[in-house]
Automatic annotation (TrEMBL):
Residues 1-31 form the signal peptide. This is Uncharacterized protein. InterPro entries: Peptidase_S1_PA, Peptidase_S1_PA_chymotrypsin, TRYPSIN_HIS. Keywords: Signal.
Amino acid sequence: MRKWPQSGLGRSFAVVALAASTMLAPAPISAAPSGAAQAGDSTRSFAVPDPAALQQLITSRPTEFGGMFLDPATNTLVVQVVDGPSAGSARQAVAGLPRARAELSGLTTSTALRFHSVGRSKAELDRIKDRVSTDPAWSGIAGPVLSEWYVDVIHNRVAVGVTELTDAVRQAAATAFGSAVDLRVAPPAVATSKQVDSAPWTGGARIAVQGAATRECSSAFTVVETATGRRGGLTAGHCGDAVGNTVTNNGVSMGTVIIREYAAQGHDVAIYAGSDYQNRIYRSITTTGPVTGTNSFLLLGQLDICFGGWHMGDQNCDGKLTALDSCASFWLDYNPRYVICGLLKATSTKAGYLAYDGDSGGPVFQVRRPIGGGAESVLALGLIVGRPGQDHTSAYFHPINTVLPAGWQIATS
């Protein structure tokens, strides 16, 4: 049985992750993009397609689309269509999708749909991204300085970060990729680490993992083993070094590590168990709130992504999703250099930090407030695994649906 799907911020690291409501059946969207809302119920007032259905369409026809993203400045959902004979068919396929049904992923009833013509398809960009780490001629020159790479959907190219941008690297990129790659200087990823908690333990709390050395990190969410009902805490795998490590909070045991993965091209996740854990996370230094669900679909450009590592104190919900399926080189002082892929990257839209030392393993979440009032819900999105160098305003995180081992889920009660 496949245990893990394919896809660090401890203080000592060198690499400085709904309550469903009843809805009417969605109506198809108009072929002509329009921001005007229709009268009637909320289902019919959306002018854009359901983002999950749109993503599925793009994935199934990767040679016809470049991708999609949300432009918050204009409140527009942008769909990139490849220039060519199939462009008209691609637009018609989008027009035939069901409408969005709720204000999810940053969409609102006033969000407009816009098509944008591009020269490179998703399939082509994905191939180029894969070659960044496998092309022998390019890697022979740039491999030692590679720090991050991902498909830059917005600019229809592949973004490649290097720790040092030399003439040799520029020439190698031009030879291997032409104009399809955008080089920029980017530091290697670094790992990071609420203060005094007690059982039943709460997500977002300060933890210390006792291995060959003691490393401070954060807990993410409470998880539950579906077959047995056993509960545990979720954190980053790089926070410890082995199954059996003891996890503490201010010297009090929170359990021992029972599952751990931290490997090149793998995941950075661990589960510890052996104590009592509740389905709540810290929303500030002293206040907590319940986790009510998960959200596995995030839209590039989405705003209001919250980070809650212990060192941050109060939650910071100013995160904007800036990269999907990103790869980053993690240079840790006690482990070999690892490339971790399948990461999401967010950047603060304001001056605040998203990830500081000790925030590794901490929760990434979304706060949903119903239209017209009512109780807000907190949806688990992922767990923090690192940040780009000393850029505390950006962070990498694992999406929650890719790192939970088979048979485990986020506790929501």
